[in-house]
Amino acid sequence: MNAYLAIGLLGILVTMTLALVRATLGPSVYDRILAVNTFGTATVLFISVLGFLTGRPDFLDLALLYALLNFIGTIAILKYFKHGSLAAGED
Amino acid sequence: MDGVREVLGWLCIVPGAMFCVIGGIGLLRFPEFYSRMHAAGITDTLGAALVLIGLMFQSADWTVAVKLLVILFFLYVTSPTAAHALIHAAYTSGHDPLLADDGPPVQEGDKP
């Protein structure tokens, strides 16, 4: 049991909670997208540290997948709010 | 050797988590969108980098360290891209930044 891994895990959990509060409060849609993006980054760190804490570094593959999904999701949500459709192009 | 790695882990992971919390507090407490963007950047860059580098010192196998390096590289490429897209979308949609000339931000709890 590594104490500093547990401390890091706790700090990342606090960050995720604060980002969730900001995502709930808003007030604009961009604040919410920013908070969800930060939540996603914290999720990647959380999964990585949890993998090391439980002695299973295979969790890093999941963390990489979450990093990919977070980026694609942010861009997709931004495009949806700008054009009202995911299929729209530049006009 | 294990002791050195443990100390390096302390020196990287605990400050990394601290920077993550600082970014989260800034995200919650800053008055408007563009300054919240600045706070979120702390979590995305310094917090993520310190935590992942600290985990690299802990990895028993070199493949694990390379995977951590790949995650770090990917975060460092995608975070600025997402931040640029977000701030560009906000600015072009007429979301004006709060300037010093506009006076102090109005908080809900403030009594005149």
Description:
The complex is a heterodimer of chains A (91) and B (112). Helix content of chain A is 80%, strand content 0%. With 91 residues, chain A is mostly helical. In chain A, helix 1 runs antiparallel to helix 2 (29-53) and helix 2 packs antiparallel against helix 3. The termini of chain A are far apart. The model of chain B is unreliable at 108-112 (pLDDT under 50). The radius of gyration of chain B is 19 Å and the shape is elongated. Chain B has one domain (2-93). Chains A and B meet through helix 1, helix 2 and helix 3 of A and helix 1, helix 2 and helix 3 of B.
| Share of residues in helices of chain A | over 70%
Low-pLDDT sequence parts of chain B: 108-112
Domains counted in the coordinates of chain A: how many? Answer: 1
- Outline the biggest β-sheet of chain B: none
Kindly give the count of domains of chain B: 1
Task: Give the arrangement of secondary structure elements.
The complex is a heterodimer of chains A (91) and B (112).
Chain A (H helix, E strand, L loop, with lengths): L2 H23 L3 H25 L5 H25 L8
Chain B lengths: L1 H28 L3 H26 L3 H31 L20
Helix pairs in contact in B: 1-2, 2-3
Annotation keywords:
heterodimer, A: 91 residues, Helix Hairpins, 0% strand, flat, B: disordered C terminus
Précis, in short:
With 91 residues, chain A is an all-alpha fold. In chain A, 80% of the residues lie in helices and 0% in strands.
